Amino acid sequence: MSNSPKILVAEDSSVIINLTKSILAFENFEIKSARNGKQVLEQLEKDDIDLILMDINMPVMDGVSCTQAIRKLEDPVKSNLPIIAISGNLKNYTLDEFRNLGFSDFLQKPLDYDQVLALVKKHLS
């Protein structure tokens, strides 16, 4: 098994998932993906994840509902995972509002992959 940090990319866009996987693979992160919040929770049940990049607007279960469900998990490691919100900021949340919703940090779409890498490294260090 690898010692590479595992990052779960929760995003309904194949383009963003593939771009994010490509960028993070250069840093030797192990990347998993989920297309909605329900799949994120299913992944967390069967796998250890070190960080989640969470799109806000996804079908089935959105990123806010999923993050709030994660924060309520009984497992203290999983309930305190770093979760970085990804959004076009359609609802105009501030960083404080994202934190109040349970997110560790926030990335604005379109994604700046230097910023993605910097935030991922910051939260994994």
TrEMBL record:
Keyword terms, alphabetized: Phosphoprotein
Species per Swiss-Prot/TrEMBL record: Algoriphagus halophytocola
PTM-bearing positions, type 4-aspartylphosphate: D55
Lineage of origin: Bacteria, Pseudomonadati, Bacteroidota, Cytophagia, Cytophagales
Annotated Response regulatory domain residues: 6-124
Record flagged with keyword Nucleotidyltransferase: no
SMART domains assigned to the protein according to its UniProt record, in alphabetical order: REC (SM00448)
Domain of life: Bacteria
Keyword 4Fe-4S in annotation: no
First and last residue of the signal peptide: none
Name listed for the protein in its UniProt record: Response regulator
